[in-house]
Design goal:
There is one protein chain. This protein has about 45 residues and is mainly alpha-helical. The chain contains one helix and no strands. It is elongated, with a radius of gyration of 24 Å. The termini are far apart.
């Protein structure tokens, strides 16, 4: 059982670190708002 407990502890710590990183990115990093213009070529012969 100590091996299973050690494995579960390591998995929980890694999951906590991933969750903390995602939370901090979502909280502290603001997206840049900018206009985007995309030119779409018109195909000749299309009806």
């Amino acid at each position: 059982m100590p091996t299973l407990t050690r494995y579960a502890t390591i998995v929980a710590i890694v999951a906590g670190l991933v969750y903390t990183c995602l939370w901090s990115l979502a909280t502290f990093v603001a997206p840049d708002h900018r206009s985007i213009t995309i030119d779409i070529p018109i195909e000749e012969g299309r009806r």
